[in-house]
Amino acid sequence: MNFFDYIKNESFFKPLTLKYHRIYYDCIQILIEKTKELPVLYESDAKDCITVYLKNTGYASLQSNREFVAEDTDAWLQAPEILFLFRECGWLLPREIGRNGEYVVNIATDCRRFMDFLRGMPEKNGEGVMSNHIFAMYDIMKSAFDEDSARRERPYTNILEPLVRVETELKNELADLKDSISSIMKAVIVFQDINSFGQFIMRDEMLEQFFSEYFFVKNNGLIPTQLSYIKGKLRILRQGDMHEKMILECAEKLQLSYEDAQERVERYFAELQYFLSVEYESNMELIDSRINNYYNLANTRIILMASNGVRLEAAINDFLNRVAKMPEEKQEIAMRRVADCTRVINQKYIGYKSFEKKKRVKNEGENIGLVSKVLSEEEKQAQTENLFKSAPNRYSVERVSNFLDVQLGSRRKLSIKDKWIQEKEEILMYAAAMIYAKNEEFPYEIQLSDDMVKTELADISNMTVTRK
Fold it and tell me: How many CB atoms lie within 10 A of CB 261?
């Protein structure tokens, strides 16, 4: 549904487009805060709040300037006129008489939600938001599989929809991370001296918050475990009895046919699985690449600023090449002159380690040798498997299975010639599936044919993927 079809008021944004939009924004926020303090906000109290605000900000002097108000039709700077404007645009409900016979000011629910959203935007600091979204998805999924979980009574409203909302927010946070790197790189290019660049690195809060949140998500051991748990439980929800219950609840809640509700639920599941299995990893790898570019740019910028814009390596290389082509006599003269121009000073600094008091080793004098231990074949096998599991593999059995699960959706069979392949990542996933075809733990059967599928990136044998 289009937002304006829902709001049903073309003047809803009018106060924010007028000349004194800052005043109107502050006034409506003041009224919202006042309704939290008083059980009933009467119109006289609302006018008093707005009048006090106008006096404190210095705009009250315009109220007496009738010529100014007459010339500028947007300058509604009196409390009654501001309340009239708010009612006209739908921010306030129509007048209602209270118990004492005085008019009551009721703020519309849509206005409250919209203003809460606007107020929260500048207060957002970006610290810990990404990890909080991942934790929220994990909590939703974990509580959904608890015994006697209340979420299972209405799985579409209490499980699927919250997951999609959090996943959308997580996507936005990843986009913010990528944009933050771009803004940092642009700021680095502007600096012309080493002092200002050093101040930026040492004191910039945005830089510190960005890297601290990113590296927490990347290096914290809980995040990959929780993402794997979410993907596994999501697959169970999609193939279990809860899936049918979600479709029926969606059809009843949104007044849709069974086919439309099924399409919506399937689209949500496909979006979640694709994001968790493919898009999240791709975004993190892209952010890694941009961070490396940022470090390289910062390093190059430091070298240029330290050398006053002269590439010392290139200058030394040109000098040595020219000296090598000179006769021996001229080479000796040139090197002596260079030695006279160069002054090398040996500088030494005393660090904190020189003042530290040496602490006696706790086990000094005791037998602290390493204990030798013979591992059985089972223990060796277990440690080997742990090493393989901890090593990152972009085309592991689990990732390829998740990719094919997203591509198949609710279907049981898929042929490559029916797919439109655009990215190199997809071709490599299908190639990995051919390798795992005879693997017992691989949940798909692969049948190759003699036909070739031509894409913009490569030619690949046509194959049919079938669930086991």
Answer: 21
Whole-angstrom CA distances from 276 to 108, 216, 231, 249, 367 are 38, 18, 7, 25, 51
Among 199, 198, 191, CA closest to 309: 191
Strands in 444-454's sheet, in edge-to-edge order, are: 413-415, 459-467, 444-454
| pLDDT tens string 150-161 | 888 888 888 889
**DSSP-assigned states of every residue in 249-297:** HHHHHHT--HHHHHHHHHHHHHHHHHIIIIIHHHHHHHHHHHHHHHHHH
Is the four-CA dihedral 329, 331, 334, 337 of positive or negative sign? Answer: negative
Alpha carbons 380 and 361: distance in angstroms, whole number:
33
Query: What average pLDDT does range 291-306 have in this prediction?
Result: 71
Q: Which amino acid is at 238?
A: R
Distance in angstroms (rounded) separating the CA atoms of residues 94 and 105: 8
Tokens of 360: 């006696």
Asked whether the whole model's pTM tops 0.70, one would answer: no
Q: Stretch 84-110: mean pLDDT, rounded?
A: 86
Q: Coil, strand, or helix at residue 144?
A: helix
User: In degrees rounded to 5, what are phi and psi of residue 440?
Assistant: -65, -35
Query: Chain-wide mean pLDDT for the chain?
Result: 79
> Which residue carries 């005085």 as its tokens?
102
